[in-house]
């Protein structure tokens, strides 16, 4: 409701509501509604007509401007990464990295640089859901005093293809099929797997894509990666190869597939809402930035090519050095102006950051500017506030559609000598502080015939896929097999399934057999590999379960407490305090949103209604029911499903003694994750119970 002290509310002839500036008072106030030309509007409820029931007049410029703007409010959505959520924050350097790079964010210990970070799905449109099985974009814009640096990556450290010329084919294959317009935001269809089965270089990425990494619990619990090998260059011109890693302070967490599907139905905006609400309540998401830095000699010693974007350097081979942290502490003021209009480009680098000859990276450097012009309609998109650098921008690039600046003088070129007559002469180049491209290897090593070929060092497509799969914890391996069975079950063409399984045979014979059994098909012979498949040392750092980033507490998580009339007030109060003390959020769920009358006669207001808050929304649940409440909820399907899903999704369940009949009806069997409501519940809620999984679902 409007503030009555600011507006008068009146009713028009047709009963319509008018909120108006008071006739008496300050008429210079910014409360006045105006057109885009600043002309104050007298009536925002009615068109200008010839008579009360007559035709609308063409001269109604208020109507024309309002409808004109509305008709053009939407811009073309991104071809990929269309559905995104973002936040403002800052990056803080842990140390002075001048020995490695002259890049401004790393120039001093404790230095803070403003950032804007956008997370996104890849395949779906802007109106799709948050939780499909999909790679997630992880793009960070650093607003440095030397210009903007965009670190544009994903939550997966490798990519599907080695050469950017294949990117249109990849995206065409994974998008909805051209003749039928579905499926949306899903890779489980013929064209995607046809392409993938014919592209052995995609095999490593497919292992990641079919793993739990692509069904994250929250945007706050994803790793991020720069994917490519970049360069850091110090003030003396010394170059060092570098790979970038974002490590979530809250740990890496994912969902079960069934859980992800049900979240999509319960809340299509689950990740977006989670990010917004976490920041809004002061639970700021935080990541640490790490690097793998190495020289050319180290790169040449590896059995794979560091310029190949389908390869990683395992952390056991080269540890990640943590160099700073990113904190996201402010939500966008306007979703369209910031989250939608932000334009990232991997070509936006600052002195001290440089590129390598990674052929996928080189193609990305070419394409992004063209994309931004197509979406934002002007070569001046960099002047939009969310894209504008926070340092002076001085050049001779004038004019163009939607030019916001008003350059003065006639010096729109250089060199010029207009200063000799006292005129403004404009900016000039600076070889000392300006960006200087790293020289790379010796010139003779970079030269050769013009060829459309892949280097032989890119030919091993299966060894790292094998490394990834075999490094996973046993439940994660089962999830990869399950995901492959699910996806390939949606493929109608049998020869595509056979070809894909033949490729999987090169990754791991047991994986191929598990998928074949899940499809009830014979196991084909492994396909011919372009290079010998190597057995590499396993990398436990690649695991989520039992890995270095597995959470060891409930900080930042959501714990649902189910109450009803008669629930014990002392138990609910103590439980809520323990959850909040551990840094988590307690959500009171009741049959009615108005709340429940507790044992002491007090009315506890609910945060959510049971029918509208399934347990997939929470990380663990507590059932704090009395005999009376249990008896009532035994007849409520939503309550039974609430408990059944939590158990099936391997979550901790804390339960009062009185609620046991509800647990029995939901099929809950005792295990380490089913506990009482005493102090042990908070500890139990910190993890999932993977040993339970074989008893609740069939996995390949």
UniProtKB/TrEMBL annotation:
<feature type="region of interest" description="Disordered">
    <location>
        <begin position="1"/>
        <end position="32"/>
    </location>
</feature>
<feature type="binding site">
    <location>
        <position position="118"/>
    </location>
    <ligand>
        <name>heme</name>
    </ligand>
</feature>
<dbReference type="GO" id="GO:0005829">
    <property type="term" value="C:cytosol"/>
</dbReference>
<dbReference type="Pfam" id="PF18011">
    <property type="entry name" value="Catalase_C"/>
</dbReference>
<dbReference type="GO" id="GO:0042744">
    <property type="term" value="P:hydrogen peroxide catabolic process"/>
</dbReference>
<dbReference type="InterPro" id="IPR024708">
    <property type="entry name" value="Catalase_AS"/>
</dbReference>
<keyword id="KW-0408">Iron</keyword>
<comment type="similarity">
    <text>Belongs to the catalase family. HPII subfamily.</text>
</comment>
<feature type="domain" description="Catalase core">
    <location>
        <begin position="34"/>
        <end position="422"/>
    </location>
</feature>
<feature type="compositionally biased region" description="Basic and acidic residues">
    <location>
        <begin position="17"/>
        <end position="30"/>
    </location>
</feature>
<dbReference type="Pfam" id="PF00199">
    <property type="entry name" value="Catalase"/>
</dbReference>
<protein>
    <recommendedName>
        <fullName>Catalase</fullName>
        <ecNumber>1.11.1.6</ecNumber>
    </recommendedName>
</protein>
<dbReference type="InterPro" id="IPR020835">
    <property type="entry name" value="Catalase_sf"/>
</dbReference>
<dbReference type="InterPro" id="IPR029062">
    <property type="entry name" value="Class_I_gatase-like"/>
</dbReference>
<dbReference type="InterPro" id="IPR018028">
    <property type="entry name" value="Catalase"/>
</dbReference>
<feature type="binding site">
    <location>
        <position position="364"/>
    </location>
    <ligand>
        <name>heme</name>
    </ligand>
</feature>
<feature type="binding site">
    <location>
        <position position="167"/>
    </location>
    <ligand>
        <name>heme</name>
    </ligand>
</feature>
<dbReference type="InterPro" id="IPR043156">
    <property type="entry name" value="Catalase_clade2_helical"/>
</dbReference>
<dbReference type="GO" id="GO:0020037">
    <property type="term" value="F:heme binding"/>
</dbReference>
<comment type="function">
    <text>Decomposes hydrogen peroxide into water and oxygen; serves to protect cells from the toxic effects of hydrogen peroxide.</text>
</comment>
<keyword id="KW-0349">Heme</keyword>
<dbReference type="InterPro" id="IPR041399">
    <property type="entry name" value="Catalase_large_C"/>
</dbReference>
<keyword id="KW-0575">Peroxidase</keyword>
<feature type="binding site">
    <location>
        <position position="78"/>
    </location>
    <ligand>
        <name>heme</name>
    </ligand>
</feature>
<dbReference type="GO" id="GO:0004096">
    <property type="term" value="F:catalase activity"/>
</dbReference>
<dbReference type="InterPro" id="IPR002226">
    <property type="entry name" value="Catalase_haem_BS"/>
</dbReference>
<dbReference type="Pfam" id="PF06628">
    <property type="entry name" value="Catalase-rel"/>
</dbReference>
<dbReference type="InterPro" id="IPR010582">
    <property type="entry name" value="Catalase_immune_responsive"/>
</dbReference>
<dbReference type="InterPro" id="IPR024712">
    <property type="entry name" value="Catalase_clade2"/>
</dbReference>
<dbReference type="InterPro" id="IPR011614">
    <property type="entry name" value="Catalase_core"/>
</dbReference>
<feature type="binding site" description="axial binding residue">
    <location>
        <position position="368"/>
    </location>
    <ligand>
        <name>heme</name>
    </ligand>
</feature>
<dbReference type="GO" id="GO:0046872">
    <property type="term" value="F:metal ion binding"/>
</dbReference>
<feature type="active site">
    <location>
        <position position="81"/>
    </location>
</feature>
<dbReference type="GO" id="GO:0006979">
    <property type="term" value="P:response to oxidative stress"/>
</dbReference>
<keyword id="KW-0376">Hydrogen peroxide</keyword>
<feature type="binding site">
    <location>
        <position position="375"/>
    </location>
    <ligand>
        <name>heme</name>
    </ligand>
</feature>
<keyword id="KW-0479">Metal-binding</keyword>
<keyword id="KW-0560">Oxidoreductase</keyword>
<feature type="active site">
    <location>
        <position position="154"/>
    </location>
</feature>
